[in-house]
Amino acid sequence: MRTDTPVLTKLDNYTPYPFEIDQVHLDFSLEPTATRVRAKMQVRRVSDGAFVLDGQKLKLNSIKLDGTPLAESDYVVTDDTLTITKVPSKFVLETDVTIDPSSNTALSGLYISGGRFCSQCEATGFRNITYWPDRPDVMSRFHVRMDADKAAYPILLSNGTPGDTGDAGNGRHFAEWDDPHPKPSYLFALCAGDYDVWRDDFTTMNGDHVDLGVYVDKGQAERAKWAMESLKASMKWDEKRFGRCYDLGVFNIVAVRDFNFGAMENKGLNIFNSAYVLADPDSATDADFEAIESIVGHEYFHNWTGNRITCRDWFQLCLKEGLTVFRDQEFSSDLRSRPVQRIKDVMRLRSRQFAEDGGPLAHPVRPDTYGSIDNLYTATVYEKGSELIRALTVLIGDEAFNKGMQIYFDEFDGTASTIEDFYSCFEKSSGRDLSQYRRWYSQAGTPEVTVKEDWDEAAKTLTISLSQKTPPTPRQSEKKPVPIPLRTALLDGKGGHADAEGWTDGETVLVLDSEHKTFKVKLAEGADRPLLSINRQFSAPVRVRRDLSTEALLELAAAETDPFNTWDSFQTLARTEIFRLLDEPQSPPDSELVEALADAVRHYRSDDPAFAALLTALPDIGELFQHREPVDPAGLDDARKRLRKALAENLKNDAEAVLSEPSPTPFKPSPEQAGTRALRSAMIGLTGALATSDAADRLKALYEAAPNMTESLACLRTLVPLPGAQRDAVINDFYEKWKDNALVIDKWFAVQAGQGTADDAKRLSEHPDYDLSNPNRVRSVAAAFAMTNLAAFHARDGKGHRVVGEIISKIDNRNPALAARLLTSFEQWSKLEPTAKASAKKVLEDLRDQDLSKNAQDIVARALE
Ligand code: TRP
Ligand code: ZN
Prior knowledge:
Elements: E1 9-10, E2 19-29, E3 35-45, E4 51-54, E5 59-65, E6 68-69, E7 75-77, E8 81-84, E9 90-99, E10 109-113, E11 116-120, E12 140-149, E13 155-158, E14 161-169, E15 172-183, E16 190-193, E17 196-203, E18 209-216, H1 225-242, E19 250-256, E20 263-264, E21 269-273, H2 286-301, E22 310-311, H3 317-335, H4 338-357, E23 369-370, H5 379-396, H6 398-412, E24 416-417, H7 419-430, H8 439-442, E25 448-456, E26 461-469, E27 484-491, E28 507-512, E29 516-522, E30 531-534, E31 543-546, H9 550-559, H10 563-583, H11 591-604, H12 609-616, H13 621-624, H14 633-650, H15 652-660, H16 671-689, H17 695-705, H18 709-719, H19 725-738, H20 742-753, H21 758-764, H22 775-788, H23 790-793, H24 799-812, H25 816-823, H26 834-848, H27 854-864
Parallel strand pairs: 2-12, 18-19, 19-21, 22-24, 25-31
Antiparallel strand pairs: 1-23, 2-3, 3-9, 4-8, 5-6, 5-9, 7-8, 10-11, 12-15, 13-16, 14-15, 17-18, 20-21, 25-26, 26-29, 27-28, 27-30
Helix pairs in contact: 1-2, 2-3, 3-4, 3-5, 4-5, 4-10, 5-6, 6-7, 9-10, 10-14, 11-12, 11-14, 12-16, 14-15, 14-16, 15-16, 16-18, 17-18, 17-19, 19-20, 20-22, 21-24, 24-25, 24-26, 25-27, 26-27
The structure holds tryptophan and zinc ion.
Zinc ion binds at residues 298, 302, 321, 324.
């Protein structure tokens, strides 16, 4: 059993590094089991303090200071540092180390994937490559030379601009790369191997030429086409929206199979999980095309928000991630449908971030302590971080926001900055004091806003009383009020807005910046009581509490002029109804509500099929979970299915009508076609929800006729929970058809783990194609089961918890970052009903008593706290 308490890193302890390293030359001699790395750095003292470098699992061959080899007594090496006891104020340090990429299963540092070298340095992978102050505020100019076997590794890539190449003897060759932009070590990258390349180019608005390349597995170049289109669209969008141009002559993307996250923004050499690069019309879904576009955008946008302006320390992670998520969401909104994008982003926020914020792993967007930096790449830092910037745009207005962004780019270019630096720009541009707004960054928990209305018929005034409360979170029991900008409108019930004194077109932003606040609005002479539409477009990441009856909510939904709120009214109605059905197991679903929801679907069916599809999606268990404690996910799942079945019965003829039309051909990943397919997929799903005896036949026929992956997968997904010959046939057919396409087989695993029992998950984790060393495959079983199949994962027999616990302990000694991520699926354990709660606790305690990695320990300890 582990007894050592994890060491916490604290924001308050930040001190600048006492040295600057203006330049570094890195020389790699690449061999899978023994790669030699020589580093030569120009070091300058800038303040008092010891000269300490980070380094882990490095074999030190030699070390020289100003050309003279150091004696062992001149330096101290520990498991993770190298300290030189006495150094001059300016010197050249040369180190020579050997590393073993072939044994790097953690995928941090230099490793091998698909027989090729690749690197991952964020957050602290560079210390597995060479000795270096591995912190983001030490920025240096990197010059790289590498040599490798020419036949096995014909392509040699690193950051920046390519330089000399040539023969290196013994069947080897070399290449040089120079990055003129000083950067922190976490943005270093190196890739070497045999790839096919999809090439293109781009001319910036300044007329500079950029060579673009997407490097993929042999034979897959065509499948990089969409990623390339997305890259060019991103480059154009950042110029137009933020005036930001690309700043090198080369931009490359490399796709790798084994990768812990989605992608990485290394300067000029982004490295991607191949799932977010490869796509073709036959094997990729619309969701895949959309995700590629958004992640390519995200990584590209980091070039300014992350790379040119980086983070002073890892506490500032949201400075680059929250801002870059905001930028990628805006990019997608501009390219696709803004309301549909907003709804999808909020669905994700509510099911993941709100859950995190309400559980034992809750932490502020900018935390002030952490146990393990890898565990800080959370929904809170990314998603809530983005919401805070979006809410800032509502609070200060677009003009001040845009001006503030330009001040930020001008003032902080080339620096390692903080959230305070960032906000100083908006204080300048808006002329406002934003210190209270910054509380959002240091306070965990989702604020709850209670809304009360009082209509004075004689005076024609509506009084809106707002109050806020943020629930306590671990180690933060006291919460202060935060400024909450709520986009608000008064609806006239006839499809328009009521005339309200001092508001523009019946709309305004109400800012709730204290615990309680009252707003009085005067309406025009003769006005009827207006309906209040609040937090439109989800302008602030809060939970709104209103005491509205079903009738009032239905009336509001019908009067809405904001598509987000239309969707959200139905979500609230559906959620309330699911809880009623949970409490009244004998009671049928409310037919009036079902009819209204079905009518809304019919209303939008032809004009906005993507929106209609979203209306059919009832709140998922992950979200419902947060509204009750103790909670029984299986009961919730059952209640949700009853409502869904009623909706499916009401929409039966519509489903038939939609599905009898042909699917659009030829396939294009356009938002229009994707919208049509989203509705078709929704109708396929509802066909399964009918659970009639002929549904399986119908779905098998639809599967056989499906002309694209979006619909084939929708049929497969819908059939998986319907046991029988049709289901088995389709599962087998799908496998046989796609067994050579790893990304499609990931989906095949995920649809089964995402809907099966714990036994199914276990069986899948024993399938010959299951692969412990491939994070995508592990996630397609373990994360699909534990994070999207809550009824089975949290089943009372405790099997789900045990199966996932076993998978995690197997993964942890190979890949701690992945194990820790999977462990977060236990975060809601204490909210479960007593039986499942006990079994989850037992699995966590058993894990705690094993010799887990530091990353996994950190999650287990906080979950059990
Ligand atoms: N910075 C990356 C992004 O959000 C994500 C990232 C952080 C990452 N750490 C990583 C990716 C480790 C891969 C491995 O764009
Ligand atoms: Zn990012």
